[in-house]
Design brief:
- The chain contains 11 helices and 12 strands.
- By secondary structure, the chain is of the alpha/beta class.
- It is globular.
- The strands form 3 sheets. Strands 3-6-2-1-9-11-12-10 form an 8-stranded mixed β-sheet, with helices on both faces. The chain has a two-stranded antiparallel ribbon with strand order 4-5.
- The protein has a single domain, classed as Carbamate kinase (3-Layer(aba) Sandwich), CATH 3.40.1160.10.
- The mean pLDDT is about 90.
- The relative contact order is 0.17.
- Bound molecules: 3-methylbut-3-enyl trihydrogen diphosphate.
């Protein structure tokens, strides 16, 4: 098993790489190409997790996957986001990045909507051989519910905790976490969360996995249990993914109370 001290995990939101307003999968190929170019110079160990956007949310909603088990709907949704993953991986490889799709449906089990177990040995091997694993929000088998929709926002902190990641980024289509006036909230900690929570703007598109508030909650739980800091930033702005990968502090920093004293 490799040491994963320098592991970076980057989530690229579905609103960046797809038209999230569409009723069915509409991909933004040029955005994926730009992102691939920004990633291409990165030398460290990297896991990419992408969102589903219009390749998952409308399908999951159509079949009410958050309310009831539906085998056909689960498979249609899974196949749709898998298709998006194929396009992302294809473009990464065209840009000289060795990347391979790792579909959560095939290596993860959930219980009541939360990740219970995940096979990680192959991911460690990929990292050791400089292959970038590309995961994504998906529909996975669930012990209690049959299947459940698992967001990339849940996968990122799960992997970060299990694999002890050093750097964590959530690239969305807004300049970090915005308040009700549209300004970026610079730092969120468990201490100020109750106060900022009521001002966090929701998603304007179909989102079955909790939108921005869901992301913040996942990252806060992680910082509380591990002290790992994450950054929510605008990945649709050219250059930002590159800046994040260089370790720059951008967007909203989600961290433990100690952050302000330590930085
Ligand atoms: C959603 O994944 C998964 C499905 C709807 C199948 P995400 O929650 O990570 O997707 P985005 O980033 O919001 O589009």
């Amino acid at each position: 098993m490799v040491s994963s001290e320098s592991l970076t995990i980057l989530k690229i939101g579905g609103s960046v790489i797809t038209d999230k307003k569409a009723d069915d999968g509409v991909v933004r190929v040029n955005e994926i190409r730009r992102i691939a170019q920004e990633i291409s110079g990165f030398k460290g160990k990297l896991i990419i997790v992408h969102g589903a956007g219009s390749f998952g949310h409308p399908q999951a909603k159509r079949f009410s996957l958050n309310e009831q088990f539906n085998a056909t709907g689960s498979i249609i949704t899974h196949l749709s986001v898998k298709e998006l993953c194929g396009m992302v991986v294809g473009i990464l490889n065209e840009n000289g990045i060795c990347a391979v799709g790792v579909h959560p449906m095939c290596c993860m089990l959930a219980d009541n909507g939360r990740i219970k177990t995940m096979f990680l040995d192959h991911i460690y091997c990929m990292l050791e051989k400089s292959i970038i694993p590309v995961l994504h929000g998906d529909v996975v088998m669930d012990n209690s519910l049959g299947t459940s929709v698992i967001s990339g926002d849940q996968i990122v902190p799960y992997l970060a905790k299990q694999m002890k990641a050093g750097l964590l980024g959530i690239g969305s289509a807004t300049a970090g976490v915005l308040d009700d006036k549209g300004s970026t909230i610079p730092v969120i900690t468990p201490k100020n969360f109750e106060n900022v929570k009521k001002h966090i703007r929701g998603s304007e598109n179909t989102d079955v996995t909790g939108g921005m508030l869901g992301k913040v909650q996942e990252m806060l739980e992680l910082s509380d249990s591990t002290y790992i800091t994450s950054h929510i930033f605008d990945a649709s702005k050219p250059g930002n993914i590159g800046r994040f990968l260089k370790g720059e502090k951008i967007g909203t920093v989600i961290t433990h109370e100690q952050y302000e004293c330590r930085s």
